[in-house]
Design goal:
4 helices; single chain; mainly alpha; two-stranded antiparallel sheet; 193 residues
């Protein structure tokens, strides 16, 4: 039972990294777009912080996936192992940050609809798609593992129930024979008195 709880926790931790990557990338993407259009509500350091946090989560995901859910690392998405998607996700996040920095340096020529804007959005959406696809595989496998564990649990309960029933029947049989033996002894004693 304890191992089932640890499996669930491990899946949850790894999936959480993907959520952090998505959230931090979305924040960085949004605020970079806002700064490019002239909004000064967010500064460049905050945007960098979002990129760093996303990259750290991607690093942890790549390192901990083989340790926490080793059976998953070689599952494939579009004929590419998840562990390889994790590596390319890290690369995409680096490229996304570079494109954001380039756009921020050249704000006057990198507005909405420009080639740099389109390229920035393509990398962003590619990274998001990777996180979603990996999460889908992880959650599907987690559900299958949970179902297997549930079947094992029910099998254990059935074995316990059969064992308990057998024990109760055995005890009932022994008591029945014990009563018959006592009755027979009482009849014999009654004859000799």
């Amino acid at each position: 039972h304890q191992s089932w709880l640890m499996q669930s926790r491990n899946f949850a931790e790894v999936v959480n990294y993907l959520s952090v990557i998505r959230e931090e990338s979305a924040e960085a993407h949004l605020w970079a777009e806002e700064l490019i259009t002239g909004d000064t509500g967010e500064d460049i350091e905050e945007i960098r912080h979002h990129f760093v946090t996303a990259q750290e989560a991607a690093d942890r995901f790549e390192k901990e996936l083989p340790l926490k859910v080793p059976e998953i690392q070689f599952f494939e998405i579009d004929q590419v192992a998840i562990i390889d998607h994790a590596t390319s996700l890290k690369s995409d996040l680096g490229i996304l940050e570079e494109k954001a920095n380039d756009r921020l340096k050249n704000r006057s020529t990198s507005g909405a609809g420009t080639a740099s804007d389109i390229s920035f959005d393509e990398v962003y959406h590619r990274a998001l798609d990777k996180t979603r696809n990996m999460e889908k595989v992880l959650r599907t496998e987690q559900a299958e593992v949970a179902q297997q564990n549930l079947r094992k649990h029910w099998s254990t309960l059935v074995v316990w129930a059969v064992t308990l029933s057998g024990t109760l029947l055995f005890v009932a049989l022994i008591r029945s024979r014990q009563r018959k033996a006592e009755e027979s002894t009482q009849r014999l004693e009654a004859r000799f008195q």
